[in-house]
Amino acid sequence: MAYEIVIGVTGSIACYRTCDLVSSLRKERGMNLHVVMTPEAARFVSPLTFATLSGNRVYGDLFEAPEEWDLLHTSLSRMADLIVISPATLNTISKLALGVCDDLLTCVVFASKAPVVVVPAMNTAMYEHPATQENLARLKRFGYGVVGPIQGELACRQVGMGHIADNAEILSAIHRTLKLKKGTKKK
Prior knowledge:
Elements: E1 3-9, H1 15-27, E2 31-37, H2 47-54, H3 72-79, E3 82-88, H4 90-98, H5 104-111, E4 116-120, H6 124-128, H7 130-141, E5 145-146, E6 150-153, E7 159-163, H8 167-182
Parallel strand pairs: 1-2, 1-3, 3-4, 4-5
Antiparallel strand pairs: 6-7
Helix pairs in contact: 1-2, 3-5, 4-7
């Protein structure tokens, strides 16, 4: 049974870690990966890197003309068995919690019925802010999985909570979510 996984990559220095995640998932049998990058993410890691690692085209422009007549955000959202947002910036978490749909990634999430796993990564002060905590709690109430963050070295060279979770933990959450979904997956 093959799974179609949308990997959302947002604008954090931690998006380099998602390269390893995509590479690990592609090595697993039955995983077909579709990377959707925010414009900010593409400033950290090239879409070409994710295209090479995933073996598929990378998406980023909400208004890009589709190859066939099918709106991009709805075609990606319909085929997704799982959406993983790694790293998930404070900006994207806030958009998801508040229903803001202004880029390809948020449109795909809101148009999909697939389960969503969010992997936060940000500065400790940003992570600990009450608005961030409320938005993460809200995503959990929506049924989203949240993986991490963990204590670790941050981009500001300080050690604190906000470091992206280890890939093993993210992979475990992906497998757990797909296992739960397996009973409803069409063969």
